[in-house]
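Technical annex, item 7. During the second reporting period the consortium partners agreed on a shared format for inverse folding records so that results from different sites could be compared directly. Each record opens with the tokenized structure and is followed by the designed sequence. A conforming record, contributed by the partner at site C, is shown below for reference.
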């Protein structure tokens, strides 16, 4: 059975018309004869939206009881049993009521699609996991309900429901989105023009990324290798050299001229030994690229222009930024550089050649292309094959003005020149070929391979010996130079590793990534086998396809009995093992540190619990003893017969006993509630509740203090437990009164913002520094003996715990002009709320 398709209507903010568009599409399909049913649609009491439901079959919802209230959710089983062609499921990011089959509605949708039913759904951009934190920074509102981006990216169709911010605000002002009493607060907070513009841009950019993925898949499926300039992509080639910063700045300016352009940096690593660039320089340039908002990539290839263009075409790049060659003019005449070759092969990709301070200063002696590389040997042989005939013709034309000794010197010069270019074997070929040419054309008798005079034979023999000697010396010098370069590269890599150790940079993925970049490998994998009877398992890997066992890689480095580092990409020469072993040791150390940190994190709750028990004993030993002692003293005095108390004195003693026992009762209640909260067994009975009912009761329980209440008359009811909310307010108001200076009353205000009500309790005390606010909410913060009215420090901790148990938030912020404001944010009561 084929899996059902998913169509998602994406919006930038509530009210843009996602549900309306979904229902309009459903009606179009219904009128064409498609079997369409409504699984879950939230109309928000909007008449035009409700009108679209007329005539559509609605699958009854499933009722669930939670915390004393009834909620309805999508009935997945009923939808699958009904088996329609298409089902409408609104609000893809919705969190289901506990007790549902799945925690999230998008999981319900996946099950329905598995049954072969097509689904049409809706989601706002602020509910996408990847941009959730960005939305909170923009709007200041945390979104609790999120959906993984991949769920929406895998949708068969994603359609943007767009609306200009000004038009959306007009809809809001006309009452087409929220009820009239909530419009002013919404327009001045979440629905500001700046917020809506930023959310709209986020939605457009996210959808552009999905469209980009679809285009890449289409080009790959149809084998399209050419560049489609649907979007500007700028690729900058980095060598790790000092010119890289100039190239990155230029590429960034080019990308900035095209809105939405992508910046990609690529380094082509050669496949022969250590990478030619300094690892530290490449790492720095990588950080620069990522800081500019681009991405860094590394590919392996001996043909740099081909590898560079293959990457650019694979990324559908439109522009390529290269640096002007650092090689001198003479070297460029002998062999065109990477820039010239890339430009000639670029086709439809625009190539920018950027000049820089290092241009034509010569290439630094790095990498393994220097010394006796195959290309230099080939060049030497070609020079010998072309140069010796030309030299012979020239010397023949100059006879008889030039004698045999001069001819020998010219040929010896050719041997030395070719030795410098191509090394030993081209030079030895030149020496033997020169011996034959000198014997045939210039040594009497000519045109015969014989030598008449002994001195001529000796001269030719010396020529051959000198040529061989020069070849060997040049070859040894080249080998020593290559070894020195290699050792220098190894030393630099090891120095970088040592620097990482000293700076404390032990992230396992970073170590493996540095190894992969240094040697230009395809993948690097750290494997572990705790015992010989168990199979190898992957601990960490970077790059392409990982190695499942040490034998899968091209090289392996054991680290102890249970760890092995396996690399894939090319065979590693013996000279590289020293550096590989250093990386392997650091990777093992990074793994140990990672596991130690994990152990420390696991031990942290035990440590916190131990501290809490200790603090509880310290605090309770004083705070239980004080009211008990006061009550006992008062009762003993009343029951004693040695003193005759007056009525006033007896009443005062009774009042002292009553107040002490009330304080003891509050303390025990707080301790019990905190223990229930931590155990997760606190019962919550939420119901519609007006704040002007619970605030006066909290003030009556408080029994005193300067408090000013300004709640307003048009506040919606909140969903809360009356007893628990009263406890929260008593604790918060008491704390505010205690810290307010005389003559400065505590101010209590409230207001509605979107689907929540915020109750603010503001004092004019010293406040709490921002860095200490979270610590103030930890239980038992008042350690040791204090005054008799301080308590055990459970007030704020208990207030936050009870508030969050009612699906609310307790947020501290500064009072304008000085002091602390505690904000109790509670959800507005609805018969069918979005979140439990």
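Designed sequence (site C submission):
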């Amino acid at each position: 059975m084929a899996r059902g398709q998913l169509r998602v209507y994406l919006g930038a903010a509530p009210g843009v018309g996602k549900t309306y568009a979904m229902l309009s599409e459903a009606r179009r399909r219904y009128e064409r004869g498609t079997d369409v049913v409504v699984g879950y649609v939230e109309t928000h009491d909007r008449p035009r939206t409700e009108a679209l439901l007329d005539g559509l079959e609605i699958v009854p919802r499933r009722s669930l009881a939670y915390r004393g209230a009834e909620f309805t959710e999508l009935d997945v089983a009923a939808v699958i049993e009904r088996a329609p062609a298409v089902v409408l499921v609104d609000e893809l990011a919705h969190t289901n009521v506990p007790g549902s089959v799945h925690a999230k509605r998008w999981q319900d949708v996946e099950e329905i699609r598995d049954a072969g039913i097509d689904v049409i759904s809706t989601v706002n951009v602020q509910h996408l996991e990847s941009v959730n934190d960005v939305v909170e920074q923009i709007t200041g509102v945390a979104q609790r309900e999120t959906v993984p981006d991949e769920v929406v990216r895998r949708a068969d169709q994603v359609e943007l429901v767009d609306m200009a911010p000004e038009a959306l605000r007009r809809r809001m002002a006309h009452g087409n989105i929220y009820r009239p009493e909530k419009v002013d607060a919404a327009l001045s907070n979440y629905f500001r023009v700046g917020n809506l513009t930023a959310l709209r841009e986020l939605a457009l950019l996210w959808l552009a990324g999905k469209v980009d993925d679809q285009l890449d898949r289409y080009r790959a499926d149809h084998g399209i290798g050419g560049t489609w300039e649907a979007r500007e992509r700028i690729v900058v080639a980095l060598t790790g050299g000092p010119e890289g910063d100039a190239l990155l700045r230029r590429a960034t300016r080019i990308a900035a001229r095209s809105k939405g352009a992508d910046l990609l940096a690529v380094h082509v690593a050669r496949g022969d030994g250590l990478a030619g660039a300094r690892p530290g320089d490449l790492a720095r340039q990588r950080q620069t690229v990522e800081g500019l908002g681009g991405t860094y990539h590394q590919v392996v290839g001996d043909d740099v222009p081909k590898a560079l263009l293959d990457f650019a075409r694979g990324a559908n790049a439109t522009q390529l930024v290269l640096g002007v060659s650092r090689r001198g003019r003479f070297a460029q005449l002998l062999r065109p550089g990477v820039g010239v070759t890339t430009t000639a092969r670029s086709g439809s990709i625009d190539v920018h050649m950027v000049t820089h301070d290092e241009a034509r200063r010569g290439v630094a002696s790095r990498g393994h292309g220097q010394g006796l590389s195959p290309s230099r040997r080939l060049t030497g042989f070609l020079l010998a094959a072309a140069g010796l005939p030309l030299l012979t013709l020239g010397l023949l034309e100059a006879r008889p003005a030039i004698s045999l000794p001069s001819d020998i010197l010219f040929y010896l010069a050719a041997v030395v020149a070719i030795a410098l270019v191509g090394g030993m074997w081209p030079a030895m070929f030149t020496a033997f070929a020169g011996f034959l040419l000198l014997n045939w054309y210039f040594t009497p008798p000519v045109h015969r391979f014989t030598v008449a005079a002994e001195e001529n034979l000796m001269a030719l023999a010396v020529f051959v010996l000198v040529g061989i000697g020069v070849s060997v010396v040049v070859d040894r010098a080249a080998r020593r130079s290559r070894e020195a370069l290699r050792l220098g590269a190894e030393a630099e890599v090891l120095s970088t590793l040592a620097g990482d150790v000293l700076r404390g940079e032990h992230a396992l993925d970073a170590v493996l990534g540095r190894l992969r970049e240094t040697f230009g490998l395809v993948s690097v994998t750290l494997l572990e086998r705790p015992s010989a009877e168990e199979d190898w398992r992957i601990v960490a890997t970077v790059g392409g396809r990982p190695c499942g066992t040490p034998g899968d890689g091209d090289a392996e480095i054991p680290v102890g009995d249970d760890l092995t580092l396996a690399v894939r990409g090319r065979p590693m020469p013996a000279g590289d093992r020293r550096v590989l072993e250093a990386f392997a040791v650091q990777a093992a150390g990074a793994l140990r540190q990672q596991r130690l940190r994990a152990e420390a994190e696991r031990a942290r709750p035990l440590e916190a619990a131990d501290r809490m028990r200790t603090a509880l004993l310290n605090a309770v030993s004083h705070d239980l003893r004080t009211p008990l002692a006061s009550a006992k003293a008062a009762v003993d005095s009343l029951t004693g017969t040695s003193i005759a108390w007056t009525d006033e004195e007896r009443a005062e003693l009774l009042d002292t006993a009553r107040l002490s026992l009330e304080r003891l009762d509050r303390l025990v209640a707080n301790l019990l509630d905190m223990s229930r909260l931590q155990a997760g067994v606190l019962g919550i009975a939420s119901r519609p509740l007006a704040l002007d009912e619970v605030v006066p009761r909290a003030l009556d329980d408080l029994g005193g203090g300067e408090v000013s209440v300004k709640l307003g008359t048009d506040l919606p009811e909140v969903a809360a437990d009356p007893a628990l909310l009263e406890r929260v307010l008593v604790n918060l108001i008491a704390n505010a009164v205690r810290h307010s200076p005389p003559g400065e009353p505590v101010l209590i205000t409230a207001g509605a913002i979107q689907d929540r009500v915020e109750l603010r309790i503001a004092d004019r005390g010293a406040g709490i520094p921002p860095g200490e606010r979270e610590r103030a909410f930890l239980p038992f913060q008042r350690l040791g003996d204090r005054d008799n009215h301080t308590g055990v420090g459970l007030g704020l901790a208990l207030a936050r715990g009870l508030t969050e148990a009612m699906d609310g938030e307790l947020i501290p912020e500064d009072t304008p002009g000085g002091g602390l404001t505690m904000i109790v944010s509670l959800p507005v009561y609805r018969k069918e709320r979005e979140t439990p």
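The radius of gyration is 40 Å. Residues 454-503 form the longest helix (50 residues). All partners now use this format for quarterly exchanges.
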